[in-house]
Amino acid sequence: MNNKEEINLYIEERQDTLIWMQDEVELEILEEVVTFILNDIKQKFQTDILTLRDEENQYYEIDQIIEFKRPHTYITIPQRHDVKTLAMNQLRQNRSIYHISNEKVLVEKYKGTRKVESVDYSIAVIKKTNQKYLDTLKGIFDDLLIQPKKRNSVTQETQQTIQLQQNQPESPKFGQQPKENTSPSWISKRALNESIKKCELKQLTLEDVSKHNTSDSAWIVINSKVYDVTHYLNKHPGGKEQLMRGVGTDGTPLFMQHHPWVNAHYLLEHSQVGFLINHK
Ligand code: HEM
Q: Which family does it belong to (predicted)?
């Protein structure tokens, strides 16, 4: 007998639940539906980059969520602290349930416990919408990046853009060296990430840092670099409370007092939000 499978995606007041019958729906279709939902989230929150993690704070790519059937995936947007991810046991106001088959998706939308909408999408429409989103993205990339030496065909380029989009951003675990990008591509994913990151790193004052002094948004300065350690708090080997002592401040002296041998930048490179500048 076949069982029901379920995946939940969470961001702010929103919960998207995918339900399908085990072994009846092709993985490729599930991936299209997850992509469809994530594209919608990207548009609503006006961002190109989403980060996906499970309850253990482990990072995932879209295809991995499906492959490993992560039941709960939390979506965050790097450096957007106005977008909160609610705790698991908190009720979400906006819930959509996607009942998926190989031909169509029935979406039921709820506000609280009240059902407000029920829509049918054919898989073809979902694929088309995803493709449209990619084309828009491709347009933006084309404007931004150096063109490939040889363009083979539109489909191949689109395929590469799919890879770029789905692999964004790189997903190392805290404390782990990110894997080198070895896949051939007309623009190195790493170079792209780095250029995006460089643009995003801000010049910050101690006053800016002091505003992020809670466990919901915890910034710390170590050696003139500002890191967002919100997600490292529960991973800090010395405990959350110890790390909180330095949050919102230049934590370099405390850091050096306890463990001058620890390479903070290696551990927190991907959580850097900027550089400390002297104000006045
Ligand atoms: C600035 C505020 C901080 C304080 C007060 C603090 C304090 C501590 C304390 C008391 C320990 C336990 C040492 C022991 O077990 O004997 C510890 C361990 C550790 N902390 Fe921190 N810490 C701070 C910031 C950080 C930051 C920003 C990082 C990292 C990126 C970090 C990474 C570590 C690591 C890796 C250990 C384990 C060290 C080892 O096993 O040798 N800490 N910390």
A: Belongs to the cytochrome b5 family.
Which atom belonging to ligand 1 lies closest to the Cα atom of 268? 30
Residues 6+ apart with CB under 8 A from 33: 18, 98, 100, 105, 126
Domain span including residue 269: 202-276
Task: Enumerate residues lining ligand 1, CB below 6 A.
Answer: 220, 222, 229, 236-238, 242-243, 245-246, 251, 254-255, 258-259, 262, 264, 267-268
Q: Of 154, 173, 200, which residue sits at a domain end?
A: 200
Residues 172 and 265 in one domain: no
Q: What is the pLDDT of residues 250-277, one digit of tens each?
A: 999 999 888 887 888 888 888 889 989 8
256 C-alpha to ligand 1 centroid (Å): 9
Question: Of the segments 189-203, 231-245, 254-268, which one has the largest average pLDDT value?
Answer: 231-245
What is the tens place of the pLDDT at every residue in 25-40? 999 999 999 999 999 9
* Residue 119: C-alpha distances to residues 7, 107, 125, 142 (Å): 19, 5, 12, 35
Domain match, 179 and 259 both: no
CA of 261 to the centre of ligand 1 (A): 10
